[in-house]
């Protein structure tokens, strides 16, 4: 299957490596606004993101992946493109362990050595990063990101756009609200409200956004 990778930054490099490794897909295009026009080099199209629909007319079977690490930006780009779900591919690195009963939404990327266990449900355009563990019966929302080595134990709910920092651990039955941020290495033992940043062991809220999606990086 031919893949068009949207985004040309560091996260895109890792996504392209997954495409090369899985033996199923092939990178046919990289779209990023650092390019001013559409051109082909060594069999790969490059061009601005606005050329996605034109690319579809040229290659009707191509599938897209939004390879943008920043959750809000990824959502914004997908919304602007307005493409139906069937035009997006879910990518899974061959070293990842995925339960047969797990479900992964379109546009989601599962990185090397990640684990997704029984009856977990992963939404659309999410990122399950390197070595992250998504235990049984988790519900991970659209545009969420479980960073490297994050561990989400059983029956955890992660709502849309939330970010679980590298090495963080979340105890069973916990809910992380939409667009919340859990800092790297945090231990989450209770629910975290939407639009909040929580850090430490146990994790405590240190910031609340006053409406709208907060601007933030990966803690």
UniProtKB/TrEMBL annotation:
Question: What Pfam families does the annotation carry?
Answer: Hexapep, PglD_N
Residue ranges occupied by any PglD N-terminal domain in the UniProt entry: 3-81
CDD domains for this protein: LbH_AT_putative
Highest taxon of the lineage: Bacteria
Annotated protein name in UniProt:
Acetyltransferase
What species was this sequence derived from? Ferviditalea candida
């Amino acid at each position: 299957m031919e893949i068009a990778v949207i985004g040309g930054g560091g996260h895109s490099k890792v996504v392209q490596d997954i495409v090369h490794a899985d033996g199923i897909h092939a990178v046919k295009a990289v779209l990023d606004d650092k390019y001013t026009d559409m051109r082909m080099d060594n069999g790969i199209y490059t061009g601005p993101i606005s050329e996605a629909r034109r690319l579809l007319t040229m290659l009707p079977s191509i599938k897209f992946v939004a390879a943008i690490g920043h959750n809000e930006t990824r959502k914004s780009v997908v919304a602007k493109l307005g493409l139906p779900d069937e035009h997006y591919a879910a990518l899974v690195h061959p070293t990842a362990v995925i339960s047969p009963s797990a479900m992964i939404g379109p546009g989601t990327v599962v990185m090397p050595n990640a684990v997704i266990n029984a009856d977990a449900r992963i939404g659309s355009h999410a990122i399950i990063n390197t070595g992250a563990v998504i235990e049984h019966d988790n519900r991970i929302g659209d545009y969420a990101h479980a960073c490297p080595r994050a561990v989400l134990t059983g029956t955890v709910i992660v709502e849309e756009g939330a970010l679980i920092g590298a090495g963080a651990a979340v105890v069973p039955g916990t809910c992380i609200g939409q667009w919340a941020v859990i800092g790297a290495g945090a231990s989450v033992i209770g629910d975290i409200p939407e639009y909040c940043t929580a850090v430490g062991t146990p994790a405590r809220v240190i910031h609340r956004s006053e409406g709208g999606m907060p601007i933030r990086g990966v803690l």
